Amino acid sequence: MDRLLEKRCTKDEFFLLYYKLLQERLPGASIEFVGESVLRIVNKDQKESTTYLDNLWLKYSNGDEDRAELIQKYVRMATSLSSGTTVVTRQNIVPMIKDLQYIQMFKSATKPMIEHLCGDLWIVYAIDESETISTLSYDSMVAAAVAEEELHPLAVENLERILPEVECHGDGPWFLLTAGSNYVASLLLFDGMWDKLAETVDGHIVATVPTRDVLMYTGSQSASGLSAIRERSVETASSGAHAISDSLIMRDGRKWTVFNAN
Description:
Blueprint: H1 11-25, E1 30-35, E2 38-42, E3 48-52, H2 54-62, H3 67-83, E4 93-99, H4 100-103, E5 114-118, E6 121-128, E7 133-135, H5 138-143, H6 151-162, E8 167-169, E9 175-178, H7 191-197, E10 205-211, E11 214-219, H8 223-239, E12 249-252, E13 255-258
Helix pairs in contact: 1-3
């Protein structure tokens, strides 16, 4: 921990030291890198969890948070996920928006509850708890007495209940939506909201979710709006924590499709 708190720590050193810290805090668990910045943890009961380090590194290197508190928080989350003590109820299942690269990290044996949205964007159903957000598995869904056909509407309803009020920022031709920090990208799934917002743009709605806490949109007929969100999305996705995708998607009826400017 002392070495992790040193400002001279490089990214590679940080990942290695954090890996060793988890080994100390999770005796008996098998921990391995399955990507440059992804750790797979298998506890002594063979329960598997995955920890992503990119976001931790960004927060650590930015220096905006107390480093000791930040690292301890992530260790607690990893320990909680590894312990298998997550409680799944019908009330704490929510939808997250992730990209294809995130989906490809899953092992088929875990049977995560996922659904393709469009392009490289996917809906990953998750369990929202006070300090952790973990992926919902098929077995956990069944244990919570949730039928697969009701999963999507239930998760969206839960998210609408727990999110703070959605706020729209900007004078046009492009806008930014905010609603807390964890599930802003999931606002893509709020059909009623988009039905109303469709009246505020020129053409079809075109949106982008570069990170989980940023959602921008404009109209398909606004050249300046499209240029603005495209440029900002690329920049945000490349440097922000919890990155998703800089893709632009268009709302056609009540479905999202990949936006083709041509």
